[in-house]
Model the fold of this input.
Amino acid sequence: MNSKKTVFVSTAILALSLLVVVFAGYYMSKNKEDKHINQLKLYFIDSANSELVEEKREVDLESKEDLIRYAVEQLQKMPNTVGLKPAIPEALKINKIIIEDDNVKLDISSYYNEMSPQEQVLLRAALIKTLTELDFVYSVEFLIDGKPLAGYDGKAIGAITQEDILLDAKGNDVASTNVQTIKLYFADQNGEKLVLEEREIVVNPNVPLEKYVVEQLILGPERNDLEMTVPKETVIKDIKTKDGICYVDLSSDFQTKHWGGSAGETLTIYSIINSLTELPNIKKVQFLIEGEKQATFKGHYDFSIPFERDESLIAD
Done:
């Protein structure tokens, strides 16, 4: 083969090679575009239940619905990073996902109400931070078995944005806390009357305010001239309000550790009743011990029926 033919063949081979490279690059680029690769940021919970940790995933999904469902499903599974755990506990079910413009409504099961306040905060934060990383999601709204998630005042919390979520070093939702003034009634030093003590406390609107009221009563008065009315060993098993009646479920220590006496029983019972009925949504209080109605407290009061407020016991 002469030199001219050799040069021609070499040039042709080089040109063909360049074409192959160009077309291969185009094909790979086109194929990547067709796969609609999206990078997601998922937020899982550390083993200490104190903070959220990010994991990135690349997914071949295009539709908004598919991306949201994939993100939620991944938060229910074990993360890839050792030392992290799912953001959504296994017992909590996602009933429905509703997309309305740039807001996502998540209807979750009532197991949410059995979670601790910190667990609730981290769950909400993980879902909000994960979903609002999608450029078409601005806010997330929560429903519990079809009913809007409500704050302590019974009003729906509504849509929450990523800017609303601010976790401190302990995982507490700072943005969802505020200061409330509550009215508590403790016994006077003679054990004859109830005396009002107002107290400012930091509350989370997702925790019933009535729970804070009873917790503060258990802690006892801050004033030196007042006496405690509830045994310090008392544990709140559950507390909820329905149709104006607050159902207060306390541990058996509330009965067994009480000091007794007719006057002592009266001040204990009505310190709780009068304190709780300071809240606008509570008209009566029904006591439960370890989840059950009792015939009497210590022999002087019928515990099987709800109690109403008694202002005659309040000192002038």
